[in-house]
Inverse folding.
């Protein structure tokens, strides 16, 4: 079928809207070559299909053997009238032919030996045993007004047996393994050749139809399933084994009709397709085109999968009996035979599926199907389909989608890439394709990238900057682009986007000093990254103030992280004129290491006092290098009481410090806390003396000194008649604190007793030997030498402490175990000290 005269165009019986969306299931080709010549002067009457060749019978009594392309390879002149049926065995080596004039011929294609007979009535059907080529299966059947079985015996003679007669003309017969199915005027019979029994009779539904005008169609789906089509009804019959207990006089097998349903049109032929059916229908209204449908059988109905009306030649002159449907079991090929035309239907492959998708302009699905099945498609190329898709998107002005598909379709084909870039330039859509250009191992010529950059530079500074950031600098001539940017900056010298992009271009070109100048000028966030990445610390020694003004935190962190490249002394010199910035730097330096900047601690006192007083006191506490006298002078000048108090206490002048707390801060809690820290009896005396005439101070002392000073000393010195706020609460607190002290003492006592008991038990356990034995305690003088007796029960005694042996000399018992009525110990070990 590679060479065909023309392709048969099926006309769908569905509505036009549905046809535009539903893909056909089958494709059609007209069998031509030698067939065309045969049918010009003759007409096809029947055909049978083998996997290797075809056998065609004509109305003028000729049989042609054809290859699958339709070329005639052999011709047999069998009769002068119509050939009714041709049968082939499974091997394809033997053929049976019957004709309207009663001739029957069964012979080998390579031997011509066989059966040749003429009867006095037309022979409508013939069927060879499927294994006819084997010597044990030389049988065939013929059908006219009766069904005859021919079987060759051991004398090489043909024996005839009548299988059935009396019900009209036999119109069809099919032989499968050991089952013979035939149709006559009344119905369909099945004969079991292995048991020589007829096992069923399937009656025809519409007896009013003439059997010669609407013949029965028979088809074996498998070895036990027969499909019967007659008129407008279809029945699917399954041959099953009968239960041995039910046999009695019944055949070993029976037939069950698993599906039966009516169709809209008259049936001309049937063929199986997996679990579906291919049906050839004839619509007698107006002699319409024959229909080839795929249906899904159901128990009492069917579901239409697809339906195609076929434009066969001279279909207007044909009747239902003029059409036949034959199929090849080896592959899904279906032959529609009419007198003047033979059409081959076969399942659509992936190439056909892609053809349909392209025809419907479903390019995305076509491309996906081609990519999935690229190993199986023969007529299509993935890239060509992709190009067709890109062209379609461009025609529809969907430029972004078209550019995106270029990345997938064009792959590594540089020529195609450049052609597409120039096409997008022609239609003014370079921006659309710019983000999808290759920029990895595959690269286009630098001129391509420069052309796109120049196009962006004319109209879209932001887009230009994005491309510069995304594209590697090796894709284009960097100096040419730098020159173009400088030309634009002459017209707009303050444009931050162009300046930033120029800095990036200088970075690509390793001219970091120029890039740094621009970044600092713009106060760009990437300036620190640029310095770190390219080690530009030598270039920023005179720009430290600028960096600090831009971002103090980042600048200080960078300077401290790179002390080996920019020294502390250098930074201090640069920041000398900006004390507020110098303080930030020295403060962070001190936080990192209290000793690195020790020579600047004296200077830091004034900086903290001026710019950061909250951190002055922590600095004074942590620093061991700042001069206390200088710090005290500055704090006193600025009247920093807390800092002065700390410095006085640190210098040993605690009384003066406490005096400042009480007189200037007037904070009794802080004064008490200070006295607690110093833990000095004289300070407590000074505090009590200062507070004795100040009721609020007395309240504070009563609430806080209970655990440090005896409250009685304070209470005795309170003047009679003095009103003291919250005196009752303070006394309750003192009593509560005293009660708490008593509880603590009792707890300590319990702990002491428990520890004593634990130690006593430990001492008691020391009386146990290393092996767990017990020594009976006595008052013997342990300083004198002694002997020890050890029993198996682990009790030990001084030998002198044991009573004398009993009636049996040398046998002694453990006193303890004997007293408890336990078995005596045996085996005495004497140990001498």
């Amino acid at each position: 079928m590679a060479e065909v005269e023309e392709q048969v165009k099926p006309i769908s019986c569905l509505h036009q809207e549905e046809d535009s969306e539903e893909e056909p299931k089958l494709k059609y080709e007209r069998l031509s070559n030698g067939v065309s010549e045969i049918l010009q002067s003759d007409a096809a009457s029947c055909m049978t299909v083998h996997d290797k060749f075809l056998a065609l019978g004509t109305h003028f009594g000729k049989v042609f053997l054809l290859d699958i392309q339709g070329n005639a390879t052999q011709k047999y002149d069998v009769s002068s009238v119509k050939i009714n049926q041709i049968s082939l065995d499974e091997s394809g080596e033997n053929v049976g032919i019957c004709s309207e004039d009663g001739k029957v011929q069964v012979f080998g294609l390579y031997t011509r030996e066989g059966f040749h007979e003429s009867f006095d009535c037309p022979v409508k059907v013939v069927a060879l045993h499927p294994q006819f080529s084997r010597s044990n299966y030389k049988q065939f059947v013929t059908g006219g007004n009766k069904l005859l079985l021919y079987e060759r015996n051991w004398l090489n003679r043909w024996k005839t047996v009548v299988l059935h007669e009396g019900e009209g003309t036999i119109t069809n017969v099919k032989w499968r393994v050991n089952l013979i199915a035939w149709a006559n005027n009344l119905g369909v019979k099945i004969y079991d050749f292995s048991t020589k029994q007829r096992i069923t009779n399937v009656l025809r539904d519409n007896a009013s139809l003439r059997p010669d005008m609407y013949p029965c169609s028979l088809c074996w789906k498998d070895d036990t399933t027969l499909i019967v089509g007659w008129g407008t009804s279809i029945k699917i019959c399954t041959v099953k084994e009968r239960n041995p207990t039910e046999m009695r006089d019944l055949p070993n097998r029976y037939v069950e009709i698993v599906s039966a349903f009516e169709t809209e049109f008259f049936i001309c032929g049937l063929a199986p397709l997996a679990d579906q059916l291919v049906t050839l229908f004839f619509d007698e209204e107006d002699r319409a085109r024959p229909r080839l449908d795929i249906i899904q059988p159901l128990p009492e109905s069917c579901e239409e999968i697809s339906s195609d009306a076929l434009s066969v030649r001279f279909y207007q002159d044909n009747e239902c009996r003029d059409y036949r449907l034959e199929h090849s079991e080896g592959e899904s090929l279906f032959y529609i035979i009419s007198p003047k035309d033979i059409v081959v239907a076969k399942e659509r492959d992936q190439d056909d599926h892609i053809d349909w998708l392209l025809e419907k302009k479903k390019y995305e699905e076509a491309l996906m199907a081609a990519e999935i099945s690229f190993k199986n498609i023969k007529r299509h190329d993935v890239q060509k389909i992709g190009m067709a898709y890109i062209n379609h998107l461009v025609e529809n002005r969907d430029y972004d989608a078209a550019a995106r598909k270029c990345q997938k379709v064009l792959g590594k084909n540089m020529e195609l890439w450049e052609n597409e870039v120039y096409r997008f330039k022609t239609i003014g859509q370079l921006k659309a394709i710019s983000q999808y250009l290759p920029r990895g191992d595959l690269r286009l010529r630098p001129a391509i990238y420069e052309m796109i950059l120049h196009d962006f530079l004319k109209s879209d500074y932001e887009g230009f900057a994005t491309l510069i950031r995304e594209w590697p600098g090796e894709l284009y001539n960097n100096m040419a682009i730098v020159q173009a940017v400088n030309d634009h900056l002459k017209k707009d010298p303050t444009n931050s986007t162009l300046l930033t992009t120029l800095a990036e271009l200088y970075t690509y070109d390793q001219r970091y000093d120029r890039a740094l100048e621009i970044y600092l000028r713009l106060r760009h966030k990437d300036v620190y990254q640029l310095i770190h990445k390219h080690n530009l610390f030598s270039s920023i020694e005179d720009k430290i103030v600028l960096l600090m003004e831009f971002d103090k935190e980042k600048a200080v962190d960078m300077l401290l992280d790179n002390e080996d490249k920019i020294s502390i002394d250098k930074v201090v010199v640069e920041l000398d004129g900006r004390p507020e910035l110098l303080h930030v730097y020295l403060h962070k330096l001190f936080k990192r290491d209290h000793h690195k900047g020790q020579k600047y601690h004296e200077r830091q006192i004034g900086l903290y006092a001026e710019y950061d007083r909250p951190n002055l006191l922590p600095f004074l506490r942590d620093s061991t290098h700042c001069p206390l006298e200088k710090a005290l002078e500055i704090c006193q000048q600025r009247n920093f009481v807390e800092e002065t108090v700390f410095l006085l206490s640190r210098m040993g002048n605690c009384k003066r410090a406490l005096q400042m707390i009480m007189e200037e801060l007037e904070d009794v809690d802080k004064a008490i806390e200070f006295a607690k820290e110093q833990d000095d009896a004289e300070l407590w005396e000074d505090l009590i003396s200062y507070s004795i005439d100040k009721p609020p101070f007395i309240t504070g002392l009563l609430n806080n000194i209970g655990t440090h000073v005896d409250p009685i000393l304070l209470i005795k010195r309170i003047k009679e008649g003095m009103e003291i706020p919250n005196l009752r609460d303070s006394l309750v607190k003192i009593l509560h604190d005293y009660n708490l002290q008593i509880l603590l003492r009792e707890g300590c006592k319990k702990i002491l007793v428990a520890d004593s008991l634990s130690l006593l038990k430990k001492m008691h356990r020391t009386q146990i030997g290393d092996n767990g034995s017990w020594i009976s305690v006595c008052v013997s003088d342990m300083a004198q030498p002694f002997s020890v007796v050890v029993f198996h029960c682990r009790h030990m005694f001084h030998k002198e402490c044991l009573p004398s042996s009993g009636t049996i000399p040398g046998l002694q018992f453990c006193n303890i175990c004997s007293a408890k009525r336990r078995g005596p110990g045996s085996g005495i070990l004497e140990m001498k000290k």
